[in-house]
Design a protein that fits this description.
three-stranded antiparallel β-sheet, alpha+beta, 2 domains, elongated, Glucose Permease (Domain IIA), eight-stranded antiparallel β-sheet
């Protein structure tokens, strides 16, 4: 399955490439010229197909919260108000994001900012980098009975300048539903304003949307918020 932004683009390009490949452009050796001249185009289409893939990912049944995105954990922060986890997406990752819980969309906001480089930030990250603080982003917030407020931030990078939300304010979402896509590599941050949850991952862990549990309920572990810090 393809992500929404690519559905109207990929098939017309395939038709054009097929036409250029099998329809001779010149009377004599046109077929050979056409065949070889479209090799780069077919290569680009293959890369595009891989990048825009959007596999079906049934949400694993759990009271815990799964990752909203594919990528690598590059930041974990716990405060007296919230738990925050930062995920870096590489070019090879699936770039569609999913909500880890059901809820109502209360906010969809695009915040203008810079486009600093964030790719491979996991090798250099120390606390909150300038890119994380200052780059453009799209914010999606949800309210739900399980977690009063959940915030998903799609943080743009030097190349990943398009963060495409699939939802709007007022939408009622099911757990595991697709909510957005980031083009090329970038960052996703999930913030849960409920201290009943604690991180279940470490820096450098490879996570997958709808599959990897990143936040566990403290009560299942017999812990209170103060005991787990």
């Amino acid at each position: 399955m393809f992500a929404k932004p690519g559905r109207g683009l990929y098939f017309p390009l395939v038709i054009i490439a097929t036409f250029l490949t099998f329809v001779p452009l010149y009377p004599t050796n046109g077929y050979i010229v056409s065949l070889y001249s479209t090799v780069p185009l077919w290569g680009m289409l293959t890369i595009l197909l891989y990048f825009l893939r959007d596999p079906e990912r049934p949400l694993i049944p759990s009271q815990d919260l799964t990752s909203p995105a594919d990528g690598y954990i590059v930041g974990i922060n716990e405060s007296d108000e919230k738990v925050s986890i930062l995920i870096e997406l590489h070019v090879s990752c699936v770039h569609v994001q999913r909500t880890p819980l059901a809820g109502k969309v209360t906010k969809v906001e695009k915040v203008q900012g810079e486009f600093r480089r964030v790719y491979f930030i996991r090798k250099k990250l120390v606390g909150e980098s300038d890119a994380i603080q200052k780059n453009s982003r799209t914010i999606i917030e949800l309210e739900s009975p399980e977690v009063h407020r959940t915030r998903i931030e799609l943080i743009a990078g030097a190349l990943a300048r398009r963060c495409i939300p699939y939802v709007k304010v007022g939408d009622q979402l099911a757990a595991g539903q697709r909510v957005s896509m980031i083009l090329f590599g970038s960052l996703v941050r999930i913030e849960v304003y409920n201290l009943d949850y604690m991180p279940a991952v470490d820096i450098g862990d490879h996570v997958f949307g709808n599959r990897t549990i990143i936040l566990k309920k403290r009560e299942k572990l017999g812990l209170t918020p103060s005991q787990s810090k």
